[in-house]
Amino acid sequence: MYAFDFEKPGSIADAVAALKDEDAQALGGGQTLIPTLKQRLAMPSKLVSLTGISEMQGVCRGDDGAVCVGGATPHAVVAAEAGDYPALAALAAGIGDPAVRNRGTIGGSLANNDPAACYPAAALASAATIVTDHREIAADDYFQGMFTTALDEGEIVTEVRFPVPEKAAYMKFEQPASRFALVGVFVAKFADGVRVAVTGASEEGVFRWTEAEQALSGDFSAAALDGLSVPADGMIGDLHGSGAYRAHLVVVMTKRAVEAAA
Amino acid sequence: MPKDHGIGASPKRREDVRFLTGNGNYTDDINIHGQAYVHFLRSDVAHGRINKVDTEAAAAMPGVVRVFTGADFEGMGGLPCGWQVTDKHGEVMQEPAHPVLAQGKVRHVGDPIAAVVAETYEQARDAAEAIEVDIEDLPAVVDMKAALQDGAPKVHDDLKNNLCYDWGFVEENKPAVDEAFDKAAHVTTLELVNQRLVANPMEPRVAVGDYNRSTDDSTLYTTSQNPHVIRLLMGAFVLGIPEHKLRVVAPDVGGGFGTKIFHYAEEAFCTYAARQLARPVKWTASRSEAFMSDAHGRDHVTKIELALDADNNFTALRTETYANMGAYLSTFAPSVPTWLHGTLMAGNYKTPLIYVNVKAVFTNTVPVDAYRGAGRPEATYQLERVIDKAARELGVDPIELRRQNFITEFPYATPVAVEYDTGDYNATMDKLLEMIDRDGFEARAEESKKRGKLRGLGVNCYIEACGIAPSNLVGQLGARAGLYESATVRVNATGGITVMTGSHSHGQGHETAFPQVIAEMLGIDESMVEIVHGDTSKVPMGMGTYGSRSLAVGGSAMVRATEKVINKAKKIAAHLLEASEADIELKDGAFSVAGTDKSVAWGDVTLAAYVPHNYPLEDIEPGLEETAFYDPSNFTYPAGAYACEIELDPETGKVTIESFAAADDFGNVVNPMIVSGQVHGGLAQGIGQALLEGAAYDENGQLLTGSYMDYAMPRADDMPFFEVDHSCQTPCTHNPLGVKGCGEAGAIGSPPAVVNAVVDALQRAGKTDVTHIDMPLSPSRVWAVMNG
Ligand SMILES: Cc1cc2nc3c(=O)[nH]c(=O)nc-3n(C[C@H](O)[C@H](O)[C@H](O)COP(=O)(O)OP(=O)(O)OC[C@H]3O[C@@H](n4cnc5c(N)ncnc54)[C@H](O)[C@@H]3O)c2cc1C
Q1: Which pLDDT tens digit goes with each residue over B644-691?
Q2: Nearest to B81 by CA among B92, B91, B70
Q3: Could you tell me which of B316, B303, B307 has the C-alpha nearest to residue B174?
Q4: Continuous segment of H or E residues that includes residue A100
């Protein structure tokens, strides 16, 4: 890696101030950023670690019933403590390996918005609110394509608020090498309708499968999806699967998620 | 009662104490005062002409000691190839130069262009970025058949073309083989790919060069499976340093799997640079570098045809294989698709006529060489797959078809130039069937079906040639090295023993198993025996560890040396007991006079050898240390039968292994626990090849699988609990221990079992048009095949 300065502030305000320096960058669990630095693919002047900020840690229940996860909370903590939202806890428990889960954070995952990451599917399907140091962003507005989000330069994700659905499940079909999602589908059934978010599949990053949402809102059963399909066009095609394969898996995983949630 | 010590016992591995507690001493743990660090600037294009490498700015960067380029190595030797294959016309193979740093052209992504030596590793990397490289892109050749076409870009401008050799084996048999095919009642044909693999030992390669200016001695610490051979190749062919001025140390090595057999540019560079700079120079590969610079394995494209008569007897076999050499010839590359592959095409079967053709091809890819099994997995895979296909075409039981064609009489001379000394293929097949409950398969398949899954059972046999092997024979076949092994057994005054072996242990457990042999021979406790290996200054000579040869060849050398020790010790004992040497017996660690109660303990004899106050000085010298070199008279031939049961999710194409059973005949077994562990590891690698692994290049020669994000390594949860058995034992007839070798069997025998099982599941589900799927059987590939 290239040389950089390092700061570990204790408050959000200090972190925001520290990130004002040119080419300063936030450091969550480092599970994406550190390998990138090791390969010399990034050259930040300063890393600002967010893991020492206690107000960004942990899982709690909001007044409106939402499960609130601090932006620097590691996946392992979500897996252990988000029992009020079992599908979310299960998703966190299925990310990477124990080392990744003990370090990687929800804020880092959502800020990075890897097209094969798991949390984006949970946030989008749950209609979560992404809270930053100065505003709240609805999940529908937050994800803007592969590795692209609504976050501004230096803006940090401080909390994520997940409304808790009546029923939900995440089904992840693992890419054999990385075990990220080759296709992951998060289905969430709320009183006023069903949301279906798909990760891993599309060249545009995480997306909502609206046809499935409509069908499931009328009849929350796997059979309701019969005959539905997503076009292979625009799906990622690579060594691990063609666009057609991914499009096929979207349907299979959605059905399985509905079955698991029902 | 299982034995609790000696041959056949399973003491825990003593080396594991240091490995599992973080106290191993690996090459990267070696840091020498004053060492500098080297970073290699590697080509990011597969094929290009080097117009200019300007190192001026880099040389001026902070901490830089010196920048080296190909020009620094002009006029020096290149990396040698240790095996020369003669083609079917009697001409020797085309052998390109392999400079330490690229000269004139780069020929694969990862080819080293320059090397920066600096005070710190990061400074070396910084400076490498400041090197100005002007490379003119040339079209890359990646596909082997395309590489052989007229007008294809040449990997090496000074060679005629990209064909290393076109090997026919046995060329004189070809007309008879062709005739048998003309007469055959049935011919089964199969085209398949044995995909390219990256060995991926847990420990990446490391080299530390050191030089003592006052004595002119060079030392190389390296992650190697055979330090003596590295000393010979690097000293004699690359750097011109005689063996007595060059020491090579391979301390604890974290796995090799073949890829650490070979002599690499980085080793030569560090040794050379240490001399030039008169200070130690260290290199530690990153995992990314490992992917693009460790020799890869396999990469064969094959067409195999099996001829049968009307009674389903195999009458002839014919194969045509394209074998990828990559951009240069790695140390033993030419031998792998030829003598380690063609000679195994008979398998366990008495096919009378066999012809093997292999075209070895240069491409703009990382060099390919031996990887666990080396040639034998490629032979086994195609043979066992084509037999399975034939059984299906003929509507006969695949096990019965195999049994009908088994070799049952030994010794058996195959039509592919080797002689199997012993074996019993029905015994391992019977054992396998005991292990797997074949009759219960239908019920299990029914149960899977209820859950929407397909189930399949695949069975196959394998044979391998291990313990490579008579030096005079391999010399005729083109080896430029001998293939014996040496051992020195040094008995110390108080009776403890230090054994210097030329075999190298990098996970095989020699430090535990070898003492079991000596303890058994002498009747002493294993804790009295210590194994020393991996250092040319301590061990007289060694050919290293690969090809499952350590116990069969290295262990045999140790037995011979121990026999010499016993002979001398008996003379000393006879003197002490005032008896005739012929009457002396060694039992339970004491020498006694036959038929009397007179005896003298092992320790008294060894003490007498070093404190020779009462000693037959007129007849024998003091001291008790013997060396033996053992050159085997034949290969050894482990064999066995494997079965794999899989479940397939037809909606996703994902295959899971439900059970795997291996019945192996390794001859005599010294430590059953270690043998089981070796089989487990081999199976994991073979299953990894079958389901997960595969190195892929795009058409420009970019490695698409350059990290674990895309190269799928097997993990523990991809594996079932293995059922392994090695109770079928036909001891090797020509080595003193009757052992055959077990290190590669799992990796050789398991890929066809998995693929046979998947094809079986699809056939049972009515997909009768699916007769083969190329590895790795990834979900997307299986799904694609199922969906046309
Ligand atoms: C082996 C391995 C396996 C993995 N498997 C999976 C998987 O199966 N599924 C999955 O979803 N993910 C997986 N991951 C990714 C992992 O989940 C991490 O969460 C992810 O890498 C990013 O989180 P982090 O905290 O490590 O972020 P970092 O690596 O520290 O940072 C990533 C990016 O986010 C920015 N950032 C960090 N925190 C914040 C914040 N609070 N606000 C704003 N910006 C921020 C950083 O500046 C950087 O640009 C895997 C990673 C590895 C190494």
Answers
A1: 999 999 999 999 999 999 999 999 999 999 999 999 999 999 999 999
A2: B92
A3: B316
A4: helix A98-103
Confidence of residue B481 (pLDDT cuts 50, 70, 90): confident
Please provide the DSSP assignment of B213-277 as one string: TTTTEEEEEE--S-HHHHHHHIIIIII---GGGEEEE--B----TTTTSS--HHHHHHHHHHHHH
DSSP structure string for B451-481: TT-EEEEEEEEEE--BS---HHHHHHTTBSS
At the top level of CATH, which class does the domain A167-261 belong to? alpha beta
Beta-carbon count within 10 A of A75 CB: 28
pTM of the model: 0.97
How many whole angstroms from A134 Cα to the centroid of ligand 1? 22
What percent of chain B has pLDDT above 90?
96
Report the amino acid identity of residue B328: Y
> What ipTM goes with this model?
0.96
Please tell me if residue B711 touches chain A, with a CB cutoff of 8 Å: yes
Residue B211 structure tokens = 């030089």
| B698 alpha carbon, distance to own chain's centre | 27
How many Å apart are CA B221 and CA B646, to the nearest integer? 44
Q: Give the pair of three-digit tokens for residue A232.
A: 């292979």
| B32-65 residue pLDDT tens | 999 999 999 999 999 999 999 999 999 999 999 9
Residues 6+ apart with CB under 8 A from B652: A173, A249, A252, B779, B783
Helix (H) or strand (E) holding B353: strand B353-362
Each domain of chain A, given as residue ranges in start order, spans 1-48, 167-261
pLDDT in tens, A155-181: 999 999 999 999 999 999 999 999 999
Residues sharing a CB contact under 8 Å with residue B178, sequence separation 6 or more, in sequence order: B318, B355
Kindly state if the Cβ of A117 falls inside 6 Å of ligand 1: yes
C-alpha dist (Å) from residue B278 to A150, B207, B208, B214: 56, 16, 13, 10
Residue B625 predicted with pLDDT over 80:
yes
A172 to chain B: closest CA residue: B652
Residues B447 and B645: beta-carbon distance below 8 Å: no
Pick from A12, A19, A32, A170 the residue to mutate for probing ligand 1's pocket: most ligand atoms within 8 Å of its CB: A32
Interatomic CA distance for residues B372 and B530, integer angstroms: 27
How crowded is residue A62: how many other Cβ atoms within 10 Å of its Cβ?
A: 14
Choose which residue among A37, A105, A132 to substitute to test ligand 1 binding: the one with the highest number of ligand atoms within 8 A of its C-beta.
Answer: A105
Place of tokens 């095996």: B83
The size of chain A, in residues, is 262
Tokens of A175: 């890419």
Neighbours of A54 (CB within 10 A): 11
Give the model's pLDDT for residue B12: 95
Which domains are assigned to chain B? 27-138+202-255+260-293 (3.90.1170.50), 297-469+634-787 (3.30.365.10), 484-630 (3.30.365.10)
Hey, are the CB atoms on A178 and B708 less than 8 Å from each other?
yes
CB neighbours (10 Å) of residue B120?
Answer: 13
Structure tokens at A184: 């992951």
Residues B645, B757: contact at Cβ < 8 Å?
yes
B779 touches chain A (CB under 8 A): yes
Q: Among A38, A180, A245, whose Cβ lies nearest the Cβ of B780? A: A245
Spatial CA neighbour of B699 closest among B230, B151, B265, B147: B147
CA B728 to chain centre: 24
Query: B311, exposed or middle or buried, with CB in 10 Å at 0-12, 13-18, 19+?
Result: exposed
> pLDDT per residue over B629-646, tens digit each?
999 999 999 999 999 999
Q: What is the CATH number of domain A1-48?
A: 3.30.43.10
